[in-house]
Specification:
This protein is α+β, with helices and mostly antiparallel strands. It has one domain. Helix content is about 50%, strand content about 10%. It is built from ten helices and seven strands. Strands 5-4-3-6-7 form a five-stranded mixed sheet, covered by helices on one side. A two-stranded antiparallel ribbon has the order 1-2. A hairpin with a 2-residue loop joins β1 and β2. The longest helix is centred in the C-terminal third of the chain and has 26 residues. The protein starts with a helix and ends with a helix. The relative contact order is 0.13. The N terminus is likely disordered.
Length: about 300
């Protein structure tokens, strides 16, 4: 019997866990929770994502996921540096630690990838072919992680040191239980990163001038079983074993890669797969067939009249 795609993915993930486990043990000091990236993770696969195009103060801006990843990285480096200063580390020590911990990090993680794809979809559904003014964009997010938050801060222009901002949009965080979080700094976010189920992979994009909105909800199928629970042990509590860190790393890559490469209808609830247009040859054949039927009908009708 041919194995299902889920079974194949699970086997491949387990193989990856075994391969990476030794590396996890050898690099254990690097396995402390760092929100900007997953230490030891493979780089993203090849992918093609259209930029989010907005207008800010009359200037058209293209925002790529690489822009978002770099911004997320920079924010988390600053957060890490501040933590180390409070521990009495020198500037030289801080620079060395950050260089080691963020080596190879792109800032493109599951959360930033989700937020970028969800915002892109929501803006397209609300504005259609129009280019939105940044000041007219409001986003409500339910996911209190630095990756998702800083991505949306970049798009709305509400984040610290976000570039090319003349007129800010609006970003509001309302958790799944209805709690509003007004402090979107990393230390504040970390207090809320517990028990984050599928309902937190959700944003609402709103056109402020009209009130039109579109809700984007990720589907559960793209997340490996146990992903949320293992993430909390690795990223929040820091209690994961080397084996669990290796297992989560494989899951982390799988989710990130899905948000980078899968189409919207695979990732998000309620999005229908578009119908593929007929090939040109099929259209030509159908047209010729219809024409032949019409000609035959006309000649038949004339014959009957005679």
């Amino acid at each position: 019997m041919k194995p299902s795609s889920c079974t194949v993915k699970r086997v491949l993930r387990n193989v990856g866990v075994v391969i990476v486990l030794l590396a996890s043990v050898l690099t254990l000091p690097l396995a402390a929770p760092v929100e900007a990236h997953m230490p030891g993770a493979n780089p993203p696969p090849e992918f093609e994502l259209e930029p989010i195009v907005i207008s800010d103060g009359g200037m058209q801006i293209e925002i790529t996921i690489e822009d978002v990843g770099n911004y997320h990285n920079d924010c988390m480096k600053e957060f890490k540096a501040e933590m180390l200063r409070k521990k009495g580390k020198t500037d030289e020590e801080i620079a060395k630690i950050i260089e080691q911990e963020f080596a190879g990090a792109t800032g493109i993680c599951p959360c930033s990838s989700f937020a970028f794809r969800a915002a892109s979809l929501g803006i397209a559904r609300v504005w259609g072919d129009e280019i939105p003014e940044r000041s007219d964009i409001k986003i409500i997010t339910r996911r209190p992680t630095p990756g998702a938050t800083q991505c949306l801060q970049y798009i709305t222009g509400t984040g610290p040191k976000a570039p090319n901002v003349t007129s800010k949009g609006e970003l509001q965080m309302i958790l799944a239980d209805g709690t509003e979080v007004t402090d979107l700094s990393v230390p504040s976010l970390k207090k809320h990163m517990k028990n984050m189920g599928i309902e937190t992979w959700n944003i609402i994009v709103i056109r402020k001038s009209t009130g039109e909105e579109f809700e984007v909800q990720a589907v559960e199928d793209i997340f490996p079983e146990g992903f949320a629970e293992l993430r909390e042990k690795v990223k929040v509590k820091g209690t994961a074993t080397p084996a669990e860190i290796a297992e989560f790393r494989a899951m982390w890559e799988e989710v990130r890669d899905a948000f980078l490469t899968q189409p919207d209808w695979v990732l998000f609830a309620g999005i229908e797969e578009p119908e593929e247009p007929l090939p040109t040859a099929a259209i030509a054949f159908t047209g010729a067939l219809i024409f032949a039927v019409i000609v035959d009908f006309v000649y038949s009708a004339r014959g009957k009249r005679r």
